[in-house]
Design brief:
about 160 residues, about 0% strand, 5 helices
Length: about 160
């Protein structure tokens, strides 16, 4: 490779983000459009696990509802991260709207298309919180990568100027 040309990293980064988005999108679709609640087969195990946690001193507010909400938050953190990485950096605030919009569409689809699923505004709120955390993580990640890239470019420019003397 010639010293006067920096390698492009945008192509591989975009390809990786696209692959992750497709993979996580498929996983998310599997989870949210499963015909019955995804945890129904393990409902008894969950109840026993929660009871055991309470016996061991975990506060009573950590119940099924709390765990379900926390799971919804965690489920949407990668959604927000991917939205935050996909949109152009100057448009990152738009990514803050995409997570709640997606969650709303999912909840509406569950309400009208899946008889056994329950859609609630609490799910939309929890999903939106997770997506927002993900978007802010993406903005932070992009700032760190940009700072690193700027240093690499600066170092390259200094080396190129020194070699042309």
């Amino acid at each position: 490779m010639s010293i006067d040309r920096l390698p492009s990293t945008s192509g591989p980064r975009h390809a990786l983000i696209a692959a992750l988005a497709v993979g996580y999108g498929a996983f998310l679709a599997f989870v949210v459009f499963w015909p019955s609640p995804i945890d129904k087969p393990v409902e008894g195990i969950l109840d026993r696990a929660i009871a055991e946690m309470h016996e061991r001193g975990v506060p009573a507010f950590v119940d099924y509802s709390f765990i379900e909400s926390a799971a919804n938050v965690l489920l949407f953190v990668p959604v927000g991260l991917l939205f935050g990485l996909i949109v152009p950096l100057k448009w990152w605030p738009v990514a803050l709207l995409l997570g709640p919009a997606l969650s709303g569409v999912i909840e509406l689809a569950q309400r009208y298309l899946l008889d056994e699923r329950v859609s609630t505004i609490n799910d939309v709120i929890a999903n939106s919180i997770g997506a927002t955390i993900g978007v802010f993580a993406a903005v932070l990640l992009r700032a760190v990568v940009k700072a690193r890239d700027d240093k690499v470019i600066e170092r390259h420019d200094v080396m190129q100027a020194a070699s042309s003397r």
